[in-house]
Amino acid sequence: MWYFRSPQIVYGPDSLSFLQTIGISRAAIITDSTLAASGIVQKVIQSLPENASSKVFSGFSPEPDFLQIKSNLEGVNAFRPDWIIGVGGGSSMDAAKIIFAMYEKPDLQVYDITPLSPLGLRKKSRLIAVPTTSGTGSECSWAAVISEREEKRKNELASPEILPDYAILDPEMVINLPRQQTVSTSVDAITHAIESYTSSWNNPYSDALSEKALELILGSLVQVVEGNGDIESRDRVHIGASMAGLSFSNSQIGMAHALGHAFGAIFKKPHGTSVGLFLPEVVALNSRASRERYDRLNRIFPDSFREGNLQSSLKKLFARIGQPLTVKEAGIGRKEMESNRDALVSLAMESTGMLTNPYEAGTDEVRETLERCYGY
Asked: How far apart (Å, rounded) are the C-alpha atoms in residues 271 and 289?
């Protein structure tokens, strides 16, 4: 027996105005310091009901860890919100999910957030996600990633109960997204769509979402990245990214994410950049088990980027938009890579992405993939 899980999705221009319709009294807004100082968060506050109270909690780095969660949780408990709103990229929305769970259940330990344990949430509040990037899919997923600063590790937490009640996809929130973030987050969305399509847990719902996500993203991405796109182009990429998020949330990720999480934890590179470094080589390895599915996805690529196989099409697209093709291009020196290679392999092998990868790769194959991705 399978389940398909999704938040209620509000999308399109002026979708932030939906916040005025759901009876918010006290809103805790979880975001990062950069967004808190910008006009983005102010747009959310201005969209709340006239008599609603709000408080912004922005003590989060780009990779929030448990200490940051704990220090902000004290303020959330004191504020007593009836709604928690995550505003930002994946890190802010993931932090909001964990804050929400621990606010609801003060005795909950963070690593008790698992799919196997009923949590009994939504006694005090509900959860909204408002993405300000197009790619992480966190607004549509029941997973959250939290870093361990000392151990250079990213932990993947998951529970159906931390799936947001509402995801608000307003293109105005991403219309001015800088090029580098546009590239990184869109590469993340492409990776979500491809890995969920070939996950060992793929299903008809995730398949349809992956295919449509790629169609929407690939059809508008170059215009958006190069600054030639209008709000309609941004909207298509934004919606496509959320579809990719829905797909992997109901199917799962693979080896590119396993390696990307490990690489990002150790070298502090953006998540989308990290997974994109490994996706083409992972596709090549997984073709032993998923060639037919990869061929189907390859046919979705525009003529200008479609090559004879998905790996080559990805490399051509990534080169055009400015995604690094090798670890070396991403700025990691050979000695630095070699000194961390065993740790990268170990962390990747611990990832849930290895469990649902279509090809059962062993430690040696993960190490060989890392080598091929370096770029001599």
From this structure: 26
Domain 179-374, CATH homologous superfamily name and number: Dehydroquinate synthase-like - alpha domain (1.20.1090.10)
What are the residues whose beta carbons fall under 8 Å from the beta carbon of 312, sequence distance 6 or more?
none
Contact 204, 156 (CB under 8 A): no
Give the residue extent of every domain in the chain.
Answer: 8-173, 179-374
Q: What is the CATH number of domain 8-173?
A: 3.40.50.1970
In this predicted model, what pLDDT tens digit does every residue of 19-76 receive, in sequence order?
A: 999 999 999 999 998 898 888 999 999 999 999 999 999 988 777 778 888 889 999 9
| pTM exceeds 0.85, yes or no | yes
Q: Counting Cβ atoms within 10 Å, is residue 333 exposed (0-12), middle (13-18) or buried (19+)?
A: exposed
Q: How far apart are CA 162 and CA 198, in angstroms?
A: 25
> In 10 A of CB 127, how many CB atoms?
27
* Per-residue pLDDT tens digits for 98-114: 999 999 999 998 888 98
Q: What is the mean pLDDT of residues 132-158?
A: 84
Q: Is 355 left (phi over 0), alpha (psi -120 to 50) or beta?
A: alpha
CB distance 95 to 136 below 8 Å? no
Measured CA to CA, the distance from residue 95 to residue 86 in angstroms comes to 8
Q: Which amino acid is at 346?
A: S
